[in-house]
Design a protein that fits this description.
By secondary structure, the protein is mostly helical. It has helices at residues 2-39, 42-58, 63-79, 83-100, 105-117, 121-137, 140-143, 145-161, 165-181.
């Protein structure tokens, strides 16, 4: 019994020491992933973010922190054509953001674009229709109008592809009105280039 108790205490000590190490490893690989993204090397980013997400999970990091790593891992997976895995990771990011009380539109917009770029139009429409109320709650039409216009344009395209032409026209009209109110505006965000750096054989 004493041996068993000693073993359990030793395991607890090891676990307590491991968590800070995993946190540091997650941060380090997160920086490597961000640097790779900046260089346009999404395969290197994918490999780095895989490790950052895994180590954040092992460390039982905060939901906010895990949301970030799974979000970036999901985006990197999508660019390198691991589409099913990308959708899973972005949904994980959504779940962690929800736990943390963070905005939910980031992962939903990426999920919409990921599926749109795969021509999975009904699924894309579904994700856009979940994302737009979140964007409206965040006042995206006034805070980031041109980025919002771009999202509306993609939503309108997906609606057209599923035969919802009147809805598509209504969304286009809304996008035109926002653009007209911001004639000198430009988007400050880059769109994730899904499916452009396939690494699968």
């Amino acid at each position: 019994m004493r041996v068993w108790n000693s073993m359990m205490m030793f395991a607890a000590v090891i676990a307590g020491c491991a968590a800070p190490i995993n946190e540091r490893v997650a941060s380090n690989y997160g920086r490597v992933g961000a640097s790779a993204q900046t260089r346009g090397d999404w395969d290197a980013a994918r490999r780095a973010y895989a490790r950052s997400a895994n180590n954040a999970d092992l460390a039982n990091s905060s939901p906010q922190r895990r949301a970030i790593f799974h979000y970036e891992y999901g985006r990197s997976l999508g660019v390198t054509c691991f589409f099913d895995e990308a959708e899973r990771e972005l949904n994980l990011s959504y779940d962690f953001d929800k736990q943390a009380g963070q905005p939910l539109y980031l992962s939903l917009v990426e999920l919409a674009r990921l599926t749109l770029d795969q021509q999975k139009y009904p699924k894309a429409v579904s994700y856009f229709e979940r994302a737009l109320p979140e964007l409206d709650r965040a006042n995206a039409a006034t805070g980031a109008p041109m980025a919002y216009v771009g999202i509306l344009g993609e939503y309108a395209s997906a609606l057209s592809r599923v035969g919802r032409e009147q809805d598509s026209s209504n969304v286009k009209n809304r996008a035109s009105a926002i653009k007209g109110a911001n004639p000198k505006g430009s988007s400050i965000t880059d769109r994730t280039p899904y499916g452009t750096q396939c690494t699968k054989p």
